[in-house]
Amino acid sequence: MFSEEGIQHSSRSFTSIRVLVPGTGPRFRCGGLSVALQTARLLSQLRPTEVVTYRAREQSHPFLDDLLDQEDAPGEVMWLVSWGFDVPGLLKRLRGRLAVYQAHSSGYGFDLPLGVPVIAVSRNTLGYWGDRAPRNPLAWVPNALEPQWIDRGARQKTQIRGSDPRPIQVLVQKRKSSPYVLKQLVPELRARGLRVEVQDGWVDDLVALFNSATVYLYDSAEYWRGRGVSEGFGLPPLEALACGCIVFSSFNHALADLLTPGDTAYQIGQGTLNNDLNRIQAAVQDPLAWLPPPDQLEALLEQVSEVHWLKRWEQTLFWIDSIGLAAGLTPGFAKTSGLVLRSPSTRRLRWHQRIQTLQSKVVNRLPGWLQQSRSKQ
Description:
Blueprint: E1 16-21, H1 31-43, E2 49-53, H2 64-70, E3 77-81, H3 87-93, E4 98-103, E5 118-120, H4 123-132, E6 138-140, H5 147-152, H6 155-158, E7 168-173, H7 179-191, E8 196-199, H8 206-211, E9 213-218, H9 221-227, H10 235-242, E10 246-249, H11 255-258, E11 266-267, H12 273-285, H13 294-303, H14 306-327, H15 346-365, H16 368-376
Parallel strand pairs: 1-2, 1-3, 3-4, 4-5, 5-6, 7-8, 7-9, 9-10, 10-11
């Protein structure tokens, strides 16, 4: 992609990075916060980076309002926003500064200001913004598994025939699971004598939990469809694969980025309940026959390693620099909107296409000699 050759420190469009989160306390604890903190930790290896909160004031982190009061725009900072419904408001407050949207889930319904770069964590989200904001700069940097999953995941042990069976035959995480899984599939699996663990609440050592399971069930399609937004990335199935679990999953949204039906994972809710029961029971009885080939699994995990993540982000930071330098833009892209390409609104495009269709129909109904005379005009 890009190299730093020719982009000297003095000519960078930004020299430091701020990762925005609402807060880091227990009430903000979720997968999105974990990814944001991981992003800040890794970006600090590339450029000076700090976490900034904008809802809760915390002693350990600066507060957004204070920084905006103290610093004039545009500054030499790249502001990274990612928190779903908060994104439009944050971009408005950061107008005139270099704000970059790290896009996880899609479907929130908002539009982006001209020129705001989008860094999508999945190809599914990349396609969404490639359609909705085709003139905004777009990049793709998948999320990374934390090293503990790759280093401590017991996948090698499951690849040895005759290894000791795991104490949990089927693992389900209650959050995001469909009613089908919790109310139909789990009871029927237990009725067949399988040991099923439904994890609910905080777990101190998730790696140990996943290492104890043979089969992992993940069915988030209805959860996200009910909320009107997409699965942003879908780390849990990858975490399960890293721990040597056989994964039965839905393939909605970003899950289709890395999971392949019948290859690295198996579809859950495939046709009938009985079909699911038979396949899951067979996987428990003969795990080796259902696991992906070791070489293929390691290649997949390499794609989502922190080492690979750092390489892509390093390229992406140079790319953001090159946008500003090549186009003569300052860090405040919004202030130079006259230089930024724009795409017509969906409504305008539809009306234009309807008018073209009507004009074409009218011309086609004209006599041949009149069509020729109109075409010469």
